[in-house]
Specification:
It contains 3 helices and 2 strands; from the N terminus they run αβααβ. The protein is mainly α. Among the domains are: 67 residues; 43 residues, Membrane-bound Lytic Murein Transglycosylase D, Chain A (Roll). The longest helix has 91 residues. It is rod-shaped and about 155 Å long.
Amino acid sequence: MVGVIAGVLGLVLGVVALVKVSNANKRLDEHQPKIDLVDGIKTTADAANDAATKAARDTAAVRQNLAQVAKDASDYMGALRADVDKIKEDMKKPAPSAAKGSSGPVVAGPGEYVIKGGDTFAKIARAQGVSLGDLQAVNAGVNPSKLAVGQKIKLPKK
């Protein structure tokens, strides 16, 4: 009899446990969409964290590159400033002149002509095979009636 009671009790407990497990499975099924949603949010958060970390590294690299570019530009502007200052100083010095005891004769460079005694714009234009108007146009700041021996003038392209 004790064995039957124990068997019945075991059977009742087994049925109760089966009902509880069944209820737990139903609840788990009810919560599965929420669990899936949380998993999706975690995946999105992990991807956003990875993107933020990469953006921070990229920003640091851009800042470093920008600092180097600013330094290079500053160095270049300093060199340009020194060049401009040198040019200004050179412009303050009087230009060498053949008439004032120069160390040698004035030599014409490409596209230039050195005035000799008796030269006029008309003579120079004929000798060089260019028109008088073109010669005057490229030497707009030169007074043709005040040409000095050793003075350089520009020649127009033929």
